[in-house]
Amino acid sequence: MNTTVALMMTTNAKLVGTIYLALSVTYGTMGFMLSWLVRGELCGLGEQLLFGDHQLYNVLTTS
């Protein structure tokens, strides 16, 4: 059985807790970085961080 499939189908409580913790830290860090990117873009006039790419800004704020 593939390792990824085995991890996704496990019922071991300690392993599930470890996976949950790792994913929550990963997604929390990603959210933190995206929030700082949006704050940095909104802190001044014009485009600061996204180099004038309005479509990318719209995707980041609505996803």
Structural class: mainly alpha
Question: Largest beta sheet, briefly?
Answer: none
Oligomer designation: single chain
Instruction: Enumerate how many helices there are, as a single number.
Output: 3
- The H-and-E topology, N to C, reads as HHH
Keywords: Membrane, Mitochondrion, Transmembrane, Transmembrane helix
Organism: Diplonema sp. ATCC 50224
Protein name: Cytochrome oxidase subunit 1
Transmembrane segments: 15-38
What does this structure look like?
This protein is mainly alpha-helical. It has one domain (3-62). 71% of the residues lie in helices and 0% in strands. It is built from three helices and no strands. The chain has helices at residues 3-8, 13-42, 54-62. The chain is elongated. The mean pLDDT is 86. It comes from Diplonema sp. ATCC 50224. The chain crosses the membrane at residues 15-38. InterPro entries: Cyt_c_oxase-like_su1_sf. This is Cytochrome oxidase subunit 1. Keywords: Membrane, Mitochondrion, Transmembrane, Transmembrane helix.
Short description:
Keywords: Membrane, Mitochondrion, Transmembrane, Transmembrane helix. This protein is mainly alpha-helical and 63 residues long.
Features of this protein?
single chain; 63 residues; mainly alpha; 3 helices; elongated
Please write out the topology.
Blueprint: H1 3-8, H2 13-42, H3 54-62
